[in-house]
Amino acid sequence: MIRKLKSGKYRIYSRKVDPDTHKRKNLGTFDSMDDAKKHEREIQYFKHH
């Protein structure tokens, strides 16, 4: 899940809520949406290989 921050950057959050904190985990902050999407694809690849 990618969200735009007030600063204009983009942050990737986990899809599921963390049961301990009841919040989503921060998986990285990026300057552009393209960079964030690229890293999200890398995360999904790593999770399934």
What would you say about this model in short?
This protein has 1 helix and 3 strands; from the N terminus they run βββα. The protein is of the alpha+beta class. The protein has one domain.
Molecular structure report:
This protein has one domain. It is an alpha+beta fold and 49 residues long. It contains one helix and three strands; from the N terminus they run βββα.
Topology:
Layout: E1 2-4, E2 10-17, E3 24-30, H1 33-48
Antiparallel strand pairs: 1-2, 2-3
Total individual domains:
1
The helix fraction, in percent, is: 25-40%
Principal-axis shape: flat
- Mean of pLDDT: 96
Characterize the biggest β-sheet.
3 strands, antiparallel
For the record, give the distance between the C-alpha atoms at the N and C termini, rounded to a whole number.
Answer: 20 Å
Low-confidence stretches: none
Written as H for each helix and E for each strand, in order along the chain, the element string is EEEH
The total count of helices amounts to 1
Question: Number of DSSP strands?
Answer: 3
Q: Report the β-strand fraction as a percent range.
A: 35-45%
Structural classification: alpha+beta
If strands are numbered along the chain, what order do they take across the biggest sheet? 1-2-3
Radius of gyration: 11 Å
